[in-house]
Amino acid sequence: MFSVKNRLKGKVLFSLLALSSLLCAADLKMATTTSTGDTGLLDVLVPKYKADTGVDLKWVAVGTGNALKLGENCDVSVLFVHSPSSEKTYMEKGFGVERTPVMFNDFVVVGTPDMKAKFAGKSISEVFKIIETEQIKFVSRGDKSGTHDKEKGVWNAALGHVPEKQPWYLEAGQGMIATINIAAEQKGVTLTDRGTYIKYEANHKGNPPLVIVYEGADALKNFYSVIAVNPQRCANTNYKGALQFIEWITTDKIQTEIANFKLLDKQLFYPDFKTRARN
Predict the structure, then answer these.
(1) Which of 133, 167, 197, 234 is a good FRET partner for 42, with 20 to 30 A between their CA atoms?
(2) What is the distance between the alpha carbons of residues 201 and 186, in angstroms, rounded to a whole number?
């Protein structure tokens, strides 16, 4: 099975050093998913949080699985993530409190333009069955991120298993933009959140090698939540700061900022605090 995880060693070391430095800071520390970082959303929100509260929000973007682990290890005080099933498990184990909906978008399948007709009119399960039957190269995040969790769920629904040992199933072990780039190199397909795809599209000035070849299934909705680390588990957590951030990001003002965040005149995320019950 093809793997590009070795490419990540330098990035992992850099990320660990960056996280180590932010953990020395006295302000609010947050672990979040790569899509909030890669798209540039946090580059917009973090200065506004500083202006509104006087608090420096120090954040690290990793896969949701790793973000939850940072919360479990008491390394951060608040989480901004997008894997409902993993979040529920985290909450049930008592690691988090005040899980609150923030925004949503959806997942899409991207591939070379010629694949669009192949998947037209199909269900998402049928699309993944075609990928398996025709052995189209599929590049997985392979990193326990929210996107990886969603992908595994789709594979299980379609086939009853994840085809991890197949030669056409490639594990990147990297973030979303890097995974899309690998899929382009391989002339294959991958599953991505729409927001990060729009960022990838913008990086290519609106003319990217990979295009959306499947979208719109209800099963591909992508929900983001914020969670405060449980102070009963982590004595050193900035619980008041976490609650302040949760209150701030769900205000009408910031929900509007999220709605207005666009690239290529396309909306990346949709505010969700008032429309979604905690699930």
Answers:
(1) 234
(2) 18
